[in-house]
Amino acid sequence: MLHSAQEVYNYSGIYISYSLSSSSNALKVEPYLITPADSNDHVKVVHMSAYNTTHFGTAVFNNHQNAYIFFNEREAPQLALFTIYLQLPMYDFPHLLKGLYLCLDYNRNPIARRILFIKHSDSTSMDDFLELKGQLIPQDQLTDEQRPYYNYTCQPGDFIKTCSVPSPLLNEKDLEREKRMLQSSRRVSILIRRLTYGIWPNMLLRSSPAATRLVRDGS
Questions:
Q1: Among the residues of 20-160, which ranges form H helices?
Q2: For FRET with 12, which of 92, 149, 170, 212 sits at 20 to 30 Å CA-CA?
Q3: What is the residue-wise DSSP string for 164-176?
Q4: Between β-strands 13-20 and 43-48, what pairing exists: parallel, antiparallel or unpaired?
Q5: Do 13 and 107 meet the contact criterion of CB atoms below 8 Å apart?
């Protein structure tokens, strides 16, 4: 940890992160503060969620190689880690960092997603950090600057989910059932997003009787 505190100078500052929301097809925008701790013996990381709650965590940095950031989203003794892996480029003071992060969705199932960190400021002041807010941005409200971040982080291949299978058999059939459940969930999510933006997914309706009933009955 002491080694990380000495190497984090190259990455200290305030970042704005971009990733896919767990609850919708929106771009999740969240500030992060990365800085050596006051004691200079470890790295301090502060996260402002899209709902403007703060989490305090730590990180391990290996200069010009990789970094791991760790938070616990629950109060002890509960444990709900979310972990971010960042690739560190081979040059000093990068403006953009990219990686993957693993956390629990709202049903407490693991999900892994792409994430981008865009440098906002070299400041390590907590006051400057607290002036920023997290938010969810729907696709139709994205700016030209945000559109490439959405395209990189929010497409179907940019996340992996798992889920719990009801009444598990504890054999390979559970794996097949889980995949079918996730595929059905994705089709329904696509339908809801299309309806939200006023686009009728005719191809999806033809291939999904359940989706057809949902639209026809309005329920």
A1: 126-130, 147-153
A2: 149
A3: PPSS--SSHHHHH
A4: unpaired
A5: no
CB 15 within 8 A of CB 118: yes
**Measured CA angle at 150 (ends 149, 151), to 5 deg:** 90
What is the DSSP track for 153-204? Answer: HSSGGGEEE--PPSS--SSHHHHHHHHHHHHHHHHHHHHHHHHHTT---HHH
pLDDT for residue 214: 40
Contact assessment for residue 57 and residue 155, using Cβ atoms and an 8 Å cutoff: no
| 158's tokens | 């940019």
The pair of structure tokens assigned to 38 is 């006051």
Q: Closest by alpha carbon to 44, among 17, 22, 14, 64?
A: 14
pTM for this entry:
0.79
By C-alpha distance, which of 117, 113, 82 is closest to 96?
117
Q: What is residue 129's three-state secondary structure?
A: helix
209 phi and psi angles, rounded to 5 deg: -60, -35
- d(C-alpha 90, C-alpha 127), whole Å: 31
Q: Containing H/E element for 216?
A: helix 209-217
H or E element in which residue 116 lies:
strand 110-121
| Long-range pairs of 148-155 with CB within 8 A, sequence gap ≥ 24 | 149/18, 149/27, 149/116, 149/118, 150/18, 150/27, 152/18, 152/98, 152/114, 152/116, 153/18, 153/19, 153/20, 153/27, 153/113, 153/114, 153/115, 153/116, 154/19, 154/20, 154/25, 154/27
Mean pLDDT per segment of 10 residues, for the chain of length 219 residues? 84 97 90 94 95 93 92 79 93 94 85 96 97 95 97 91 82 86 68 53 45 41
